Amino acid sequence: KGSDGKYMVTMIEGDGIGPEISQTVKDIFSAANVPIKWESVDVTPRLIDGKTSIPQEAIDSVTRNYVALKGPLATPIGKGHVSLNLTLRRTFNLFANVRPCKSIAGYKTPYDNVDLSLIRENTEGEYSGIEHVVVDGVVQSIKLITRAASERVLRFAFQYAQDVGRPKVRAVHKATIMKMSDGLFLSIAREVSKDFPNISFDAELLDNACLKIVSDPTPYNDVVLVMPNLYGDILSDMCAGLIGGLGLTPSGNIGDECSIFEAVHGSAPDIAGKGLANPTALLLSSIMMLQHMGLTQHADQIQAAIFKTLAEGKTITGDLGGKAKTAEYAAAVIKNL
Ligand code: NAD
């Protein structure tokens, strides 16, 4: 917090629709007089000592400010690029990815009262990036599960359940098949649960969880779901589908010191630069960020304006069945502040 009473927050605008949806957040925050100054940084990778890496200024900015809001970063496939998203998560040890998925009042979907809470392990598992060719035509990819990373995210999940008032934590797994890796995750979950006697604990197979959530998500409304990396990636997109799609789901990458908030969706190259993107997911991520920073009044005010705009249904973007451009939606939210 500076001497002017404002908090400095790092802004990574990102690729594709990133700059358009970041602008919406900036416009709405300034209209709502949120006491934040943005420090925009470029994370375009640079070649440093023969390796591509995030520019040092970007790393310094997040380290200094502790909090960042991030647009989507595109990862080109098959060109030897390291995922910048993974690099950021590793650099700042952002070990837990919190993905709430809540129905938007007034926006009609098959289920009205979805209120899912999902925590994804964010540093290892299937995303360890350890892949190699065994012989021509045979590749191997290693799913790494460690006691340290599992215990850290599981402890976070129980603490999160306690903090948000959910009585149950459920580990989602495939320990029937991946007996050692998911088996370890599950056994650590049981151990950690003993330290949280007020929170009940159980476990569910991933396939069963998918079937049950799409059949009726409401029994999950008092549960915090916690799972290894890839399962969380897929399950959270599936849950996003239940409430109206990727344009609506926020997330927070939480670390020991720094936290980076971002939408669940990617850079949407198909609609980039056309002013068609739905900025709600990034806006709701920025609201998670404000709550994390303790700026709850501003968070509530902006959230209420977003929900009002969506419920009115007159100025919504194409992904939700409307005709509004990103900037028109932003103007409607500002009017509703
Ligand atoms: P995507 O999420 O970018 O797009 C999937 C579909 O959803 C597209 O049809 C897109 O138009 C639509 N969509 C997504 N966000 C939207 C929004 N806010 N408003 C309206 N429509 C929206 O997924 P993809 O096409 O698989 O990935 C594109 C790029 O994004 C890839 O390079 C990928 O690596 C990257 N990506 C980045 C992140 C991140 O930075 N956290 C996450 C996922 C994907």
Describe the SSE topology.
Blueprint: E1 7-12, H1 18-31, E2 36-40, E3 46-48, E4 51-53, H2 56-65, E5 67-70, H3 84-91, E6 96-102, E7 115-121, E8 125-135, E9 138-144, H4 147-164, E10 168-173, H5 181-193, E11 200-205, H6 206-215, E12 223-227, H7 229-243, E13 250-254, E14 259-263, H8 280-292, H9 296-312, H10 326-335
Parallel strand pairs: 1-2, 1-5, 5-14, 7-12, 10-11, 10-12
Antiparallel strand pairs: 3-4, 6-7, 6-13, 8-9, 13-14
Bound molecules: nicotinamide-adenine-dinucleotide.
Walkthrough of the structure:
The protein has 337 residues and is of the alpha/beta class. 38% of the residues lie in helices and 24% in strands. It contains 10 helices and 14 strands. The strands form 3 sheets. The chain has a 10-stranded mixed sheet, with helices on both faces. A two-stranded antiparallel sheet has the order 3-4. A two-stranded antiparallel sheet has the order 8-9. The two termini are 25 Å apart. The model has no long low-confidence stretch (mean pLDDT 94). The structure holds nicotinamide-adenine-dinucleotide. Nicotinamide-adenine-dinucleotide (NAD) binds next to loops.
The number of E-state strands comes to: 14
Rg from alpha-carbon coordinates: 20 Å
Any ligands, ions or cofactors bound here, and which? nicotinamide-adenine-dinucleotide
Give the % helix. Answer: 25-40%
The H/E string reads: EHEEEHEHEEEEHEHEHEHEEHHH
Mean pLDDT: 94
Report how far the terminal alpha carbons are from each other: 25 Å
* Order of strands across the main sheet: 2-1-5-14-13-6-7-12-10-11
Unreliable spans are none
**Strand-pairing-aware structural class:** alpha/beta
DSSP strand content? 15-25%
Shape: globular
| Biggest pleated sheet | 10 strands, mixed
Number of helices: 10
